[in-house]
Amino acid sequence: MGNIDLQIPEVSIREIRLGSITGFQGGAEELVKSSRCGLRDKSRSFSQCLGCSTSQAACMVILVQDAAVISHGPVGCSSCFHEFAFTYRVNSPLRGIENPTQRKVFSTNLQETDTVYGGGQKLAKGIREVYERTHPNAVFVLTTCAAGIIGDDVESVCNEAEEELGVPVVAIFCEGFRSKVWTTGFDASYHGIARKLIKPAREKRDDIVNVINFWGSDIFKDWFEAFGVKPRYITPYSTVEDLSRASEAAATIQICPTLGSYLGAALEQEFGVPEIKTAPPYGVAQTDRWFRELGKILHKEEEAERLIAAKKEEYLPKIEELRQKLKGKSAYVTAGAAHGHALLSLLGELGMKAKGAAIFHHDPLYDSGSEEGDLLAQRVKDYGDVPNFNICNKQEFELVNMLNRLQPDVLLARHGGMTLWGAKLGIPSLLIGDEHYSMGYEGIVRYGERIVETLENSEFVKNLKNHAINPYTKWWLQQEPYTFLEGGNVQ
Amino acid sequence: MSGIIEQERYTCAIGALQSVVAIPKAVPILHSGPGCGNMIQGFFERSTGYAGGNTSPCTNFSEKEVVFGGMERLREIVSNTYKVLDTDLQVILTGCTAGIVGDDVESLADEFRELGKPIVSVETAGFKCSNFESHSLVVNAILDQYVSKFEDENPVRSEKNTVNLFASLPYQDPFWKGNLREYKRLLEGIGLKVHILFGPQSEGVEEWKRIPRANFNILVSPWYGLPIAEHLENIYEQPFTRFPNVPIGANETERFLRQVINFAKGQGTQIDEEAAEEFIKKEREAYYEEIDNLATFLLEFRYGLPNHVHILHDAGYVVGLSKFLLHEVGIVPKEQFITDNTPEKFKEQIVTELRSTSEKREIPLTFEPDAGKVQDAIRALSHQGRGLIIGSGWDKELAREKDYDFLSAAVPTPYRLVLTTNYVGFSGGLRVIEDIYDRVLSTYR
């Protein structure tokens, strides 16, 4: 693979590196097939606010325990970062952090004059001030649209500061305008971490497995016990020292290839840490495959088989019960790429009908280049096609139109802002924030129980429907949902 | 002030898109990078309104628009906005990308206006100023590009008892909805008709069209919003009266209402002074009935109540809360911190206003938008007795470190939900008291 090049400062964006797209309408099977022969993206002639790379990059570095973060831009570009400070504090008990420290988040606060004369000096001064004030073990510098367009040489400024201060100063190039796929921001932060923080292995640790994840509950500790290994979560709640030693692990797993694709591949290709390429464990069949692959990589095949057998004995009857309860129910899914595929697999496992999905983007293949990692392909193989499978980067107008048409029994979402319209249309809606919640055999049960609960608890959405405020025109709700997607027909 | 800052308590110019969201059935159209809307939504939280948040149209600048300009893209998005969304007013706000590239958004808005569309454009590139300042840019743009079209039906200063009120900045003041409602109720109580312009009490664009009719304007602000009052003075010769801080509790609310009554009389407004005084008296009596009842608790509660406070807020709240807490609650304002990036020229007035709080004591005041620095300053302070910090969500951690009580009353704050609560007025003062002692009492288990 020639996609990972740690010599250059900027990560290659997903559109170029992976051929990722943000516009598609059709079926899941069709998308899987056409993914293998090159996808062409489609643009929209109407669009609503997306997300951008900078906040995705930010969440991967702000939660590093002992680092400071500087957003090089106007204050607005770090406006939402307080939410990650909240996350860090609130989820710290899940990760055994007893005294979570305040997050150190700064902005270079670029002004109009800086856009004329450049913001490089201000950044240089800012890095030194932040160092003096917080004494972090690393400083991360996030770029923004303004810094990118005015052409500040952020890389050189960071390198000079690093030399002077003696701690890593990591430039992360995550300007919003560079990519329509905001998960490029994850890649950008991992690229910086792989370039500047991860050191060649000083020793090899058979007992440590890297887990690339967000800030979810610590489920891997229990799972890994059977294999005699421990998880090292990266990057949220890790330390700069932990990150530098990521190269020493026996293997890397990702809870979501949309998230960890780049770092998993970089660790394998540049530091020799094997990556489990099998798609993450959602649904029974995929969980079987995943535990087997984990056993294989760790040379603990028998342990894997024992674990699989024990867990299945415990959970399969419960899954069957849930199937009975959910028989005949339908759902619509909206989520970021891989997690959306995972939720569709769960629906398949629970015997529910997937009426459609709005998935934020599509990566034809991940950085590992392995087809085994394709969760959507697994979903289609294990549980069949998904109709109305659309790639839609949080375009609410399309979602509203589609939901209004399909009227599923439940809406399943993974990201904020998306459940509102399910509820306004009277459709019970469920968002689970903890990305580990529905993994493994027990996850199917946990998630299934929440769906049952959501379906039962419908009074609130029914009431809301009766009083919902709707800014969308009647005309729009009568059009085809993909009217404004290239090739659509605007009357 | 243009150095680096930690934990910003305001956002950039495009943050004033929330002032558009606050006008019933208006829609902000962002000509900006893809993440700007998301950032603003993340800053204020629960701030979607009618067509903000994920509903707002956006050109989502990509590399292509940065290189070739985004005018065609914007034209397409605007024309399709009319098909998809049912709105009364559209306001195009530019981000840094459009600002640096130099797209001529004004002429595009003109094109649509010529077709009869109620559309306005305003330059709000993030590096230009803060949202405290750009709120005025947005309002003045609406006045010039929209309200001015309806001047014939709305003769200037034709209604002697009508006023336009400019006070709480939508969303930046977490209590803006409740505060505006309370201002309106109070001013109606003394016999005025009020254009409140933002929030559910506003009649939307119909009310905006009637702005010229008002006899005068009321500005409640230490500094932000002043360009609006000055602009209206220029274009409609409407004079204005400015009250310098958020009026919280009985003393300041009475002072505010009397200032307005006196000003109104000078403008030929017909005020029934007796009725106005009767209204104030009733409000005051109801207020003191509560304070009277509460005083025993404040004086006698033997398990510990805060005796001093540090406030981190905008200038209007720092001054308003300090006055209120000292005189009406008995909590002494110690070092105070204004985090709104106050322009230099207004600082002296604000210092003077705070000084007027008490002849007995000096309240140390610092202007500092870098709230990380402010926190360090507070960490280094030590006072006798139990302390209280009033600030944003960031300060919850500081309060815990210092073992102080904490009231979240500024943005950004993920630790508190505010719907229609008001801190303004007599009732607002009572609410502040409830909030402080609710938090204090909840520490006893």
From TrEMBL, chain A:
<dbReference type="InterPro" id="IPR000318">
    <property type="entry name" value="Nase_comp1_CS"/>
</dbReference>
<keyword id="KW-0535">Nitrogen fixation</keyword>
<protein>
    <submittedName>
        <fullName>Nitrogenase molybdenum-iron protein alpha chain</fullName>
    </submittedName>
</protein>
<feature type="domain" description="Nitrogenase/oxidoreductase component 1">
    <location>
        <begin position="52"/>
        <end position="455"/>
    </location>
</feature>
<comment type="similarity">
    <text>Belongs to the NifD/NifK/NifE/NifN family.</text>
</comment>
<dbReference type="InterPro" id="IPR000510">
    <property type="entry name" value="Nase/OxRdtase_comp1"/>
</dbReference>
<dbReference type="GO" id="GO:0016163">
    <property type="term" value="F:nitrogenase activity"/>
</dbReference>
<dbReference type="InterPro" id="IPR049939">
    <property type="entry name" value="NifE-like"/>
</dbReference>
<dbReference type="Pfam" id="PF00148">
    <property type="entry name" value="Oxidored_nitro"/>
</dbReference>
TrEMBL record, chain B:
<dbReference type="GO" id="GO:0016491">
    <property type="term" value="F:oxidoreductase activity"/>
</dbReference>
<dbReference type="Pfam" id="PF00148">
    <property type="entry name" value="Oxidored_nitro"/>
</dbReference>
<dbReference type="InterPro" id="IPR000510">
    <property type="entry name" value="Nase/OxRdtase_comp1"/>
</dbReference>
<feature type="domain" description="Nitrogenase/oxidoreductase component 1">
    <location>
        <begin position="13"/>
        <end position="440"/>
    </location>
</feature>
<protein>
    <submittedName>
        <fullName>Nitrogenase molybdenum-iron protein beta chain</fullName>
    </submittedName>
</protein>
<dbReference type="InterPro" id="IPR050152">
    <property type="entry name" value="ChlB/BchB/BchZ"/>
</dbReference>
